[in-house]
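Methods — Computational structure assignment.
A single polypeptide chain was analysed. Its primary sequence is given first, followed by the predicted tertiary structure written as structure tokens.
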Amino acid sequence: MIQYPQDHEVGDALDNAQLIDDARMGVLPHLTRLARELATTRGARGLINEARGLGTHIIRYPFGFTRSRVRPSMNGDGRKVDRIHDTPVALVHGYFHNRSGFDFLSTELRRKGFRWIHGMNYNPLGHTIPELAERFGHYVEDLRRISGSNRVHVVGHSLGGVIARWFVEEMGGHRVVDTCVTIGTPHRGTYAAYLGPGSAARDLRPGSGVMLRLESSLRRSRVKYVNLYSDLDLLIVPPSSALLPEQRNVHNHLVEDLGHTSLLLSDELVDQLCRHLEKIEQVARLPKLIA
């Protein structure tokens, strides 16, 4: 069993170590273990949550194709916008989804006081991950220009998390990104990508050039990473791919009993994301307040 430092906040160290052990066992033993878990009461609850989440996303999906103007949003409680909540948040969705996947998250972020929250749509079939990351970079620049902010936070779900990381680590995004939040992201690829068509799906396969490049580039980045993952994600195989390596600028947090799509509808996930963004902003602005 791998032991982690007790003073480093990593969600649940025992579960993280278990995920790494699962990867060493191989894909088939992992799927067997996952099947046993899904047969329990806890697993059944997770499947129900995932089914509800998938239904919600399907209903909202058509509304995600409408164009969204980049403009400030009103704070949900009507309070005056403060500097902590004024940093723009750029969202990038997962494979075969659109910005509607972030409807719940966007609404909750606005209610908690965040002002600039916008998501980019893209088609993964005809583009590689580096190409999608380049497009995302242009979107981030538009958001910075219109908002007048020097920095942004980026949030990516699934494939979107890989796109966000490539922008940050391979395209100079570290110069403008303060925090990179990844949700249900296969950081070292997933065998489920063999079932998906398109260039981006090929880039998501374990051992691809994109995955190998990202595995080494993370250590060069000083951007703060918040990685939110679940223990019942059927689309990340092996499960250890859901974790980022232990580093001072990385926080892994486990959200239990949820699946790949139901993560985006989790109150706990929203609370964790908001708490980290607010804490990071407070720490960043503390020296200026002291001065």
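Note: The chain has nine helices and six strands.
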